[in-house]
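Chapter summary example.
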Amino acid sequence: MQLAQEMYDETSPDGRRTYTVQQIADEFGVTRPTIYRHLATGGGSS
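The structure predicted for these 46 residues follows.
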């Protein structure tokens, strides 16, 4: 889920996040808490 981390880190020119955590969760078919857990652990190779 390295892509999820990249999506979370992506910002627009005005400094706002390009994707919300909900949008990332929807893209991967998981819940928001799953994304937050993934981000808190620094990603990983899964």
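To summarize the output: The two ends are 5 Å apart (CA to CA).
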